[in-house]
Every structure is written in C-alpha cells, then in structure tokens.
Amino acid sequence: MGKVRILYGDRPLHLNIPDENLLGVYGVKAPPQVDVDEMLEEALDSPVSSDRLEEIRASKVLIVVNDSARLTPTPKMLDHVLPRLEGDARIIVATGTHRPPTEEEYRGLILGHHYDRLRRVTTYHDSKGSEFTDLGRTARGTPVLINSEVFRNDLVITLGSIEPHYFAGYTGGRKSIAPGLCAYECVEANHKMALLPEAALGRLRGNPLHEDLEEIVRKVAGRVRIFSLNVAITGEGRAWAAKSGNIFDSFYSLVEEVESRYSVELPEQADIVVTVAPGEMGIDLYQSHKALEAAKPLVREGGVVILVAPCWDGIGPRNFYDLLAGRSRKEIREYVWKNYRLGYHKSAKIVELLDKAEVYAVTDLSPEVLERIGFKPFFNPQEALDEALARVGGKVAVLPEASLVVPKLRAKR
Predict the structure, then answer these.
(1) How many CB atoms lie within 10 A of CB 287?
(2) Which residues does 364 contact at the CB level (< 8 Å), separation at least 6?
(3) Cα separation of 163 and 176, whole Å?
(4) Which of 55, 88, 151, 307 is deepest in the core (most CB within 10 A)?
(5) pLDDT (tens digit, 9 = 90+) per residue, 332-383?
(6) Domains of the chain, CATH where assigned
(7) Quick check: 40 and 78 in contact, CB under 8 A?
(8) Closest to 296 measured CA to CA, from 397, 385, 392, 391
(9) Which H or E run contains 320?
(10) Computed over its alpha carbons, how large is the radius of gyration of the chain?
C-alpha cells in the first residue's frame, strides 16, 4: 500500500493507494531559484528577433500591463524596462473584459512602488467604453476592434506572464493585446472558439482560438511596433524565467521552457485521476475547474475524476454554474452553441468532461451545490478514492499540482 501526499488547500493529507493500482504521481518539475533582477536584465539584453529596447527610437511609448487577475510581477518588470526608455511612457492596464482595477490593486500588483510616480499616467482598458480602431475581421470572422490608445504611440511594450491556460493553450504574449485591449464583441467572438475541442490546455498548434488571437495581434503589429517582455511564473507568482523581444517569437521561446517544467506525461490513460487544486488554486469552484481540465485527456472513457479543492470562497463567478444547474448535458450543449455569451465556454468544458467520466468532488461545498451540476460530493478524498476503486477499479494517476500541469499521453509506437 502506497501513501501519496496531497494538499487540501494548504493542509497536507495522505491517500492510501494499493501498489497494484497506482499508475503514478505526476507532479511538476520544480522551477529553478533565480535572481529575478539578473534574469530580467539578461532577457532585456538579449531580445529574441528584435533590437534591444534602448536601441528603439520612440517618442511616445505605451506600456501594457496585466490586471490583478494574473500574478505577474509587474512592478519588478517596470524596474528594468523604464530605465531603458528615452522619455516618459504611459501605461494601460489590459483588463480585457474584466472590471476596472481598484486603487488598492494599482498600489499592489499593478504599479506597486511605482504608484506615486506612475498613477497619473496610468489608465485602464474598458471593453465596452473605450474608443476603438476597426482593423477588419480575421479569417475566422472575428471583428478586430482594438483600443485606439495603442495607435497613438510609436512603440507598445507588453509586460506579461506565461502559464498553462485551459483553452488558449498558454497565457502571455499575444494575450496582452488580444483579448487584453479588445472590444467586448471581439473577445466574445474569439472566445466562442473555446467550445471547440482543439481549444485545449497547453495546446497552441491547431488551436483555433489561439491562432485567431495571433492573427488579431499581427494586424496590430502591422500598424505599430510592439516589444514584449514575459516571465514564466509559478502558481504563487514567483518568476523563474524571462524572454523579451518580438511578441510572437519570444512567447514561443518561453513556452518551451514552461513546457519543460510543467508537462506531465502518462504512459496510458488512467481509470481514476485524482486532480488536486492546491493552495489558492482551490479557492472556489470556478478556479478549481483548471484542475479538471488537466484530468480530462488523462482519464479513460467511463472512468472517474476526483477533484480535490476546498472551495472555501464558494462557487465563484456564477454564470457557468447557473447554466449547468438543472439542465441535461444535451440541453446545455445546445443552449451554449445557440445562445453563446462570454463565460459559457467553462460550462461547455465541464460538460465535455462529464460526457467522458464521472466527477467526484472533495470540497467544503454543500452536497446539493455539487449534485445540481452532476458532481458526486465527498468530504474525504480517501472515501472518494475507495468508492472509485470499487466502482471502476484499475489504475490511479495522481496530479498533486493539477492547476499548473500540461497533460500529455506518451505516443504509442
């Protein structure tokens, strides 16, 4: 009998798994400890497919930064970008379709110790209220409507972070512009492609949503020069790698490093996948969905996925939950395709998983909340595992950091 350590939020627990059933424990490779200042200087000194930032002549510069939905170390990145610019720059927060930042968020993750100097030259993107420039449509029909502030500058600098993303493949790079600075209708049209199975966690090639985002940003790059600085971060926001330069080439270069650390490869699909949303990643059901996406390609048809996530803040944003509750999976699929609204893709992704496997959920949520969307509730992961073994038997795979991993199956020869 093997004991496997997992986290329930921040609380360590152990699962007892019979040796003959344990396929493996598939965790991320710990990123290196680095001097972040040295790392950022090296990245800016050796840009990918671009001149160095200080060699680019620009009288008007716009710096695009993330809002607090990402743990991007923006103030630290600004420490290294600002001294390389000839003049002053303006800053815009790429909120996408998110709400405006609060003043507390400006003082914290967004501007930090630069607040007193930069707040007066910092604005935010409003997907419904900003002025937009129409750049036509993509090959897939997405209207390309970009915040006009972008085109009032000689140089746009994007600061972002790269993590696995459940339908765009990865965050970072092109996402600072699209969806970061796009009109609501542009984002909604693009994000409907998240309903397609090819729009998947860790997938870029053949991902229609990612390819559409990239086409949008190539249209922007045809009008204004873009320089990009991205970092790879852990789930706690610790930066461990960085690349700068061309917004596309530097992104792909950094994605390779992220994949080398966060990819997990199973020799075969498992009958049971224990998928853990550790620490803050298990704050609510909305965020914990990332752990379910990691399990989806790794569980066999008719298997069981066991979600372990406290969800101490409850459901989170409710539109996905309210759409799922009280409807059959067939009704949900039909409704989402006919009446798509931004956010419905999360409901569709959950239905995809429920079509394939049962979901047992170990959370602090009431059983009724989980049962309404087709999840079987448990308060103890061992009980959930024991029932799954009695129900389907077979091999068990454990993902102790499922919210971070890029799942893969070993290619058959």
Answers:
(1) 18
(2) 310, 311, 312, 379
(3) 13
(4) 307
(5) 999 999 999 888 899 999 999 999 999 999 999 999 999 999 999 999 999 9
(6) 2-27+267-409 (3.90.226.30), 36-261 (3.40.50.11440)
(7) no
(8) 397
(9) helix 319-324
(10) 22
